[in-house]
Each structure stands twice: as C-alpha cells, then as structure tokens.
C-alpha cells in the first residue's frame, strides 16, 4: 500500500522538483483548487522547481491562457510542458495531409507546422485532440469513422492520451479514448504525452535548464490518473504522489471520505505501477 500523506510539506525535504499534473490536481477545467495552488506556490518559495506536465493537447501558451481565465496563480509554476508541445514534434514527421478531429480551440496545435488539414478522403493520417463536441459525444459516435481510417491504414496521432477528464462536476471523453478505440480495431496510434516517455524527457530537460543536472530520485511526479500520471512516472523511474480526489474517486470514495479498504483494492488492481504516496488532495501546511 502506498504511504498516505496529508500535506506535501511532510515529504518536501526528499524532493527538489515537482512534475505536477494539471486537470484533476490544480483545477477541474472550470474551477481552480486553491489549496493545490497554494501548495505549489509554497513549494517554489521553499526552493522547489515546479514544472506542470499536462496531457492538454494545446501548446503551453494555451494552458497559460486558461490558467489566467480561471484564476490559477502564475507563481505556482516555473515551466509548463504539454502533450500538445511534444505531439508537435511527432506531427513534424507525420504525413503532410492530416484529417483533424477536435474542437476548433485546439487547432493551434498545428500553427507554424508544414501540414495541411484536409477532408477525410484526402487524408494521409489523422490528428486528434479530442472529440469534435466533447460535452455530448462518446467514442461510440466515432466507430464508423475509425473503421474507415483502419480500412486505409491511416496512422492516428493522439494529442491527448487521457481517456477522460473532469470538467466541473462532469466526466468528459478525451482523445485517448478515441485512440484506444482505434487500437482496439487494429489501428496504429502515435502518442507522445503521458504515460509515454517523450513528455517526461522534455519535462526533465526543462528542469535541468532551470536548475542544472538533477537526480531523478529528487523529482516527484504528482497526478490523479493511474494509467497516465502514475504509470508514466513509474516507467520514467520517478516517485509519484497519487491525488485520490480526481478521476478515479468513484472507485473508493464513500460520501466525502476515502474508504481505505476500497482504495487498497483499487491499488491492487493497478499493482503493476503503484505510486509511492497518496493523498486526498494537494496541500501544504496546516
């Protein structure tokens, strides 16, 4: 069983760097989580380096804009690495003609790249940042389209590996759910975000640009997704703090508290990649 902590400062002396997830830890897409933001500000004031590492399909500038819009303090981080940032590197080596799946707001992912967004019948590959209408659509709505892609063996570039994410009180589907559906019918996906190594390699490069060479043993990954944040951290050789009050909460919360027996069962189900610590939320001090 991972060790339970109540506050980040309980273990802060063991780490110099936090690689912190965003959705589900810092905000829910609509509302910021003040205690988490205060914890990251306090960590930086204590000399820690904070790099946000998020599966957002937007380049970092888009995340910064969202932070400003919903009220996430700019003092809470030193740098931001997104799945969109590292996916751009994949797309630079992709076929030039892409069919785009995703909301209009995420098209900035291809700004400045030598690619052309085309109709489905002209496409040489697919770029997905999420459903077109993520408030209403599910992967089932894309079954016929994905079958057509598979019939032509089009590679599927997934800019957000998350399966689902919280938006306010709702759970919505992300690009990762469509990527998984494509893989289930034999399609080939290309993914650089969490839990895959490119995003961690880039985050560590940013850390070392900020503070010099730093041992992985002095880095702590923080996140609420077992298949992305925790799996990615473990595979990258990092300790991890699991935030229980996130996308998996329905698996072990009883009312407003964690049922630790159910949480133990949850961790047993995910035993191939376990966090070092767990906490209900991210906080610092009393």
Which radius of gyration do the C-alpha atoms yield?
Answer: 19 Å
Q: What is the CATH architecture descriptor of the largest domain?
A: 3-Layer(aba) Sandwich
Note the gap between the termini. Answer: 25 Å
The count of strands amounts to 16
> Treating each run of at least 4 consecutive H or I residues as one helix, how many helices?
8
Describe the SSE topology.
Elements: E1 3-4, E2 17-20, H1 34-45, E3 49-54, H2 60-70, E4 79-82, H3 83-92, E5 97-101, E6 116-117, E7 125-128, H4 143-151, E8 156-158, E9 164-167, E10 170-173, H5 175-184, E11 189-191, H6 197-211, E12 219-223, H7 226-235, E13 239-243, E14 253-254, E15 257-258, H8 260-269, E16 277-279
Parallel strand pairs: 1-16, 2-3, 2-12, 3-4, 5-6, 5-7, 7-8, 8-11, 12-13, 13-16
Antiparallel strand pairs: 9-10, 14-15
């Amino acid at each position: 069983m991972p060790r339970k902590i109540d506050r980040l400062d309980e273990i802060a002396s063991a780490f110099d760097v936090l690689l912190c997830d965003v959705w589900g830890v810092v905000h829910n897409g609509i509302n910021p989580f003040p205690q988490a933001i205060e914890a990251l500000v306090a960590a930086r004031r204590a000399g820690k380096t904070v790099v946000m590492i998020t599966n957002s399909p937007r380049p970092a500038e888009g995340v910064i804009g969202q932070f400003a819009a919903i009220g996430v303090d700019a003092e809470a981080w030193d740098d931001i690495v997104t799945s969109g940032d590292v996916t751009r590197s994949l797309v630079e080596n992709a076929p030039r003609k892409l069919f785009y799946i995703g909301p209009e707001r995420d098209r900035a992912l291809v700004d400045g790249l030598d690619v052309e967004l085309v109709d489905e019948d002209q496409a040489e590959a697919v770029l997905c940042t999420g459903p077109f209408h993520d408030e209403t659509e599910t992967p089932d709505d894309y079954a016929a389209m994905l079958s057509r892609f598979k019939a032509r063996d089009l590679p599927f570039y997934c800019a957000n590996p998350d399966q689902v994410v919280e938006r306010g009180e709702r759970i919505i589907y992300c690009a990762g759910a469509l990527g998984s559906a494509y893989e289930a019918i034999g399609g080939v996906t290309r993914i650089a975000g969490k839990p895959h190594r490119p995003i961690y390699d880039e985050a560590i490069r940013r850390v070392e640009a900020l503070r010099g060479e730093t041992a992985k043993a002095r880095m702590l990954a923080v996140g609420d997704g077992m298949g992305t944040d925790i799996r990615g951290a473990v595979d990258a050789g990092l300790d991890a703090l699991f935030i229980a009050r996130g996308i998996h909460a329905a698996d072990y919360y009883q009312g407003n508290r964690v049922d630790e027996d159910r949480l133990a069962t949850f961790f047993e189900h995910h035993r191939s990649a376990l966090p070092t610590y767990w906490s209900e939320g991210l906080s610092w001090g009393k």
